[in-house]
Design a protein that fits this description.
By secondary structure, the chain is mainly alpha-helical. It contains 17 helices and six strands. 53% of the residues lie in helices and 6% in strands. The two termini are 22 Å apart.
């Protein structure tokens, strides 16, 4: 990668941009990432065993989980892109592999299956999974189950070595379901010396065969609890992260300058009203890109690519930040944008960096 582009789009700069971005502005979706393939694979598993009536709804939130009594499944946004996975590991101390994510999705589908058919009301289910009292209000609010978990027990599956099935009957069933759902997995052989766990796996197989053609007894319309779009706190605050290290290293951070140069999304009653009086800043930049490159390259004496890379950066971040330009101020903003880019390109010509002293 050429020097100018590396300075603007390097990993440290991108991490700082992410850390300072509110969760609801990260621009991540369930589609087109690692989660997409995990969901596709799990749906294929469900089809293979005949669970066609169960239709979970997947959405992004701040962690994984199935909404109580529903078939809506929240997924951790931090698994949507590699840089988010890196930051999550750095500041929260854990990172899920692709196989981990697949197993988690299978586990959550297990919850959704039990809720869809209200298995927790069945006598045979309650006896098999030792349900006592209210299925939902007895669920522990912490992970202190680890302190009382029996590592030698043969009554539970333990695919991840964390004894999670011992947390609560709800998770016991979901973990057992996820093990049973794995394709080409000889669970009978693996758990042949674990009689309690084997009985539960056989129960899952029997109950899936019994219910796979039946309609769920609950409404499967999406129920969203704490969707990502409701969270306005910056990623850094969510992760408990300090940004000082990345501020020192980020050689292409220009968000603050763009925020002073352009306007945030205008508060208007309708999109039509906004489009009447404003234009998107990234469209504005692209429209004038060729002329700005020619003029700055001529007067500052820098390569076209140096100007182009900076304008590409401006356009990319303006889109991510949802910045706008008032139509009545377009001429003024063109002058200001050209001045800003000229200054940064002059710095590059002087010291091989877009910022003074390599710091912002």
């Amino acid at each position: 990668m050429r020097r100018s582009r590396d300075l603007l789009f390097n990993t440290d700069t991108q991490k700082l941009e992410l850390l300072l971005t509110p969760l609801n502005k990260l621009g991540v979706t369930v589609e087109g990432c690692e989660l997409t393939e995990a969901i596709r694979l799990t749906r294929a598993d469900m089809k293979r065993v005949g669970l066609n009536k169960l239709q979970p709804h997947f959405y992004l939130s701040t962690g994984y989980g199935t909404i109580t009594g529903s078939t809506s499944i929240a997924l951790g946004f931090y698994d949507c892109m590699p840089l988010l996975k890196d930051l999550n590991e750095e500041f929260r101390g854990f990172r899920y592999s692709y196989d981990d994510v697949v197993n988690i999705v299978r586990h959550e589908v297990g919850h959704a299956f039990s809720y869809a058919y209200k298995l927790y009301r069945r006598k045979d289910f309650r006896e098999m999974f030792n349900v006592r009292g209210n299925y939902f209000t007895t669920y522990p609010v912490t992970n202190r189950y680890v302190e009382r978990a029996n590592p030698w027990s043969r009554d539970y599956v333990n695919p991840n070595g964390d004894h999670y099935a011992q947390k609560h009957p709800d998770d016991d069933f979901a973990e057992t379901f996820s093990v049973w759902l794995q394709p080409d997995y000889n669970w009978r052989r693996v758990y042949r010396l674990y009689p309690g766990a084997l009985r539960k796996l056989e129960f899952v197989e029997q109950i899936v065969k019994e219910l796979r053609r039946a309609e769920p007894v609950i409404d499967q319309r999406p129920v969203l609890w704490e969707p990502l779009e409701e969270f306005k706190l910056p990623l850094a605050k969510f992760l408990g992260a300090r940004t000082s290290k990345y501020r020192r290293r980020a050689t292409g951070y220009i968000d603050r300058d763009l925020g002073e140069l352009f306007w945030k999304a205008p508060a208007v009653r309708s999109p039509r009203g906004r489009e009447r009086d404003y234009v998107r800043a990234d469209n504005f930049i692209r429209k004038h890109k060729r002329n700005i490159i020619q003029q700055i390259s001529r007067w500052v004496g820098t390569e076209h690519t140096v100007v182009k890379d900076l304008l590409d950066k401006c356009s990319t971040r303006a889109r991510a930040l949802d910045l706008w330009v008032r139509k009545e101020a377009r001429e003024q903003k063109l002058v200001e944008l050209t001045s800003f880019v000229s200054y940064r390109c002059a710095l590059f010509a002087l010291n091989d960096s877009y910022v003074n002293g390599h710091r912002k």
